[in-house]
Amino acid sequence: MKNKFWQKSILIVVLAIFLGNSLACTPIYEGRPTAFPTEAATNTIEPSPTYTLTPAPTATLTPTPTLTPTPTIEPSPTATFTPTLIPTQLAGLPVLSDGSRVVDWDYVYVTGKENQEDGTLISLSAMVSFQLMDRGIHSEVINVLGDEVTVFYLRVRHEFNDLVSEVKLVLTGVYGSGLDIRSLPADGSTYISYHARGATDLFEPWKLHQEWSLPVSQREPLFSTMRLADLEDYLRSLPENVILLADHPIILPRDDWNQIYLDMDRLSASAARYSPFFAFNDLNQMTGQTTMATLWQNHLLSGADIPADQHNKMVYSAEYLVFVTP
Fold first, then answer.
1. Domain total for the chain?
2. How does pLDDT run across 215-241, given as a tens digit for each residue?
3. pTM of the entire structure?
4. How many Å apart are CA 18 and CA 91, to the nearest integer?
């Protein structure tokens, strides 16, 4: 009994010593909200980027072709406007009379004539009949007083004492060259005055001239105007038989020459229409009326033939046109 007691006592002492050592080795944590210690954060060392040098691209050498001498290119001339060719279409002759004479391709009517006391001619204007050679408007560039003027004209024919000759009938002119009739500016030089009538109506050329001599505002409704492009459309709409007449001054009083010079210098239409009848020297000084004016004067007043070298080279102008159809 006594031995058992001592054995239990020794065992209790050994256990107590073991527990005491365990408690002594475990630290006491105070003031901690958690049951276990939180490890303090440590700075993580970021890996620094490694800089590697990228080699610069090297230029690839390409072979350079050997230069060979080439001929210098000459500047090409500027293209000029070339009008479309207009087919020939000769007009037929309708029956027409002025009351005393038959109007055909040789018809002329002096609409104005003035003489001095000694018989010297002062002024002359006339209405001349023409046969249309086609139904289009043609153009050419001339130089008038140092300016380029595009002259618009009709190809017509007139009979000079049984000799049928082509005539260039000037309508108007516009400053510049290479102009398209459909793109002209809308100014006075592009408008044409005309009178249209039937062959059965009483034809009185003297009355038409008188009406034309009135102020512009009083010419209507006898005279109308249309642009060149519209006139070309009108020509194409005409019947096969049609007589064309044109009235214009040919010889003008010397007292009017200064004004005519000013008009030709500033108005392209006047420059074109008067250019066949007035001559200028190299200094652009008016020297008088042309041989063309004299040829028309002689033919109209005395029935003179035109010289052989002027056959198909005659020129006339139109202040206004008269179209007569059946």
1. 1
2. 988 998 899 999 999 999 999 999 999
3. 0.74
4. 148
